Structure formats: structure tokens, C-alpha cells
Amino acid sequence: MQAWRVHENGEPSEVMRLEEVPEPVPGEGQVLVKVRAANINFPDALLCRGQYQVRPPLPFTPGVEICAETEDGRRVMATAGLPHGGFAEYALADAAGMLPAPDSLDDAEAAALHIGYQTGWFGLHRRAHLQEGETLLVHAAAGGVGSAAVQLGKAAGAKVIGVVGGEAKARVARELGCDLVLDRRSDDIIARVKEATGGRGADVIYDPVGGDAYAKSVKCIAFEGRLLVVGFASGAIPTPALNHALVKNYSIVGLHWGLYNSKDPQAVLRCHQELTELAAKGAIKPLVSERVGLDGAAAAVQRVADGVTTGRVTVVPGEAAA
């Protein structure tokens, strides 16, 4: 079979190689699945660079989020088991962690529903307890993780403010349903958020960026607001000023979705059921902006790493770029 493999750490476009390799052999609790679509996440780039918290042995195949077909013909969503990831014709998946792919979504959309939307759902509902009528501020609102949070926030009845970089991404954020879109390159984020909320600030802030985004967030968060720390796509991990959190009375809330698979797997199943229902109603739909064939995976991962994409970029083996 064909698979992209990383033999040394570095930029994805430089270290990912498309090779002919044997099909991986499942270990205990694993199954071999045929990859129908593999969604690209920012952590795939970090894996290539050797900067992710998980470091699979070299060589490895990246691609952690897949829609796949089991040997008995079931269409499933799964987290691929590294080092045999999803940027390949076949991958390994944990049998216990596989979820049925929603009939309302095609393969690429189903691949993109898993990690980003589960992260958004757990973040907004379980960790931040977002309420109808509250204001949700989403950084990187046109990206893969941010676009999921925008849709989930709107589905929950929140007013959603999206922060993006550039007019092209602003158009995408508006199409996603943001009530207000701010461009971090030209808008005074703090002043505009306060203006839009009558001086109150945002009740919940969804931050997958870190760095300057975090610094601005704490200056426009509401009394008893909740700031969700989702990731650090900017590469800068902020150091919270806890005296500031004390004085302004807001919460800094961490979110690591992967832990729920071991700590509370039933909650993951309940989340998937709710996401499936929302997708069936059309309340959420993954924004798949690019579909590339297997041969285009390395270049696509690099584009995601460089932050020039919107929505989700998905690898569909056997299909040319669309």
C-alpha cells in the first residue's frame, strides 16, 4: 500500500515521503481499516516537527483523524493509531474508540467531525457551560477548530464574535454565521468586543491560538467569564497573570479532549450522538475547503502548518484534488 512516512523531524513538505509499504498489522484491541478520508489537523504538522506532546517512533505515518471502512463494511470515524496514521491507504484504529459515521455527512465531512467538533462540544458545554444568550468569542474562527466552535456556539443560541486574520477569512467566518467578525490585523479587538457587548465583554472565549490572542482575551472577558485554553497555534504559550484573573473574577479553563477517551468514554459517546443529531438537522456541517488526493497530502499539511487555509483540508485516497 501507499503511505506517507516521516523518517526525520522537520517541516511537513520536507520530511513527509510517499512510500510503498506493507499493510500495518493490528495489535491488541486494534483493527485494520481502509482509509476513506483523513482530515488534516495542526497537530499533524507538530508531529512532523517533533513538537507534539506525543512523539511516535520514526518512521511514522501522520494523520490522526479518519473516516474509514472496516473489514465487514462499516463506515466509521476513528482516531488512527500512530505510528500507522491516516495519510495512507490503510491505517490502524482502536476498536473500542470507533464511532459510526453520520449518514448525513460524506467521507471528508465525517473525517472532520471527530476531534475538532468533540473538542468544541466538550469545551463549550462541559468545561465552559456556555448558556443561550451569552457572548462567545472565537479566535481563528475561519480555521478548522474555530469553525467548529462557531457552529456549535450558534447551535447553542450564543451570540458569536469571530476573530480572523484577513478579509478572505473574514468572509468565511461570516458565512459560518458569526454575528460579528473582527480582523486581528486591522481591528482593535478589545475595544470592538467591549463595544459589541455594551462594555461587559465576552462570557466565553475559545482560544486555540495562544500568544497575543490570549493577551487580548483577558482584556475583554466578562465578569465571571470563562477563557478556554484549547491550543497554541501561534507557537507562543502564554503565562497567565493569576492576580489579573483574581481581580477581574474570570476563570482560565484548560481543555484536553483526548483525556476523555480514557477518563470518561461514555461522555465521548454521548457527545458523538449529539453531534450526529445536530448534523442531521443541518445545525452543524464541517467546512471542508479542500479535498486532495493522497499524493497531495504533504503539501496540504504544510499549508495547514503555515496558517493559510480555511476550514478543513482533507486527504481522500484515490481522489484528485478538488
UniProtKB/TrEMBL annotation:
It comes from Streptomyces triticagri. It holds the Pfam family ADH_N. One of its GO terms (molecular function) is zinc ion binding. Residues 11-315 form the Enoyl reductase (ER) domain. This is NADPH:quinone oxidoreductase family protein. PROSITE patterns: QOR_ZETA_CRYSTAL.
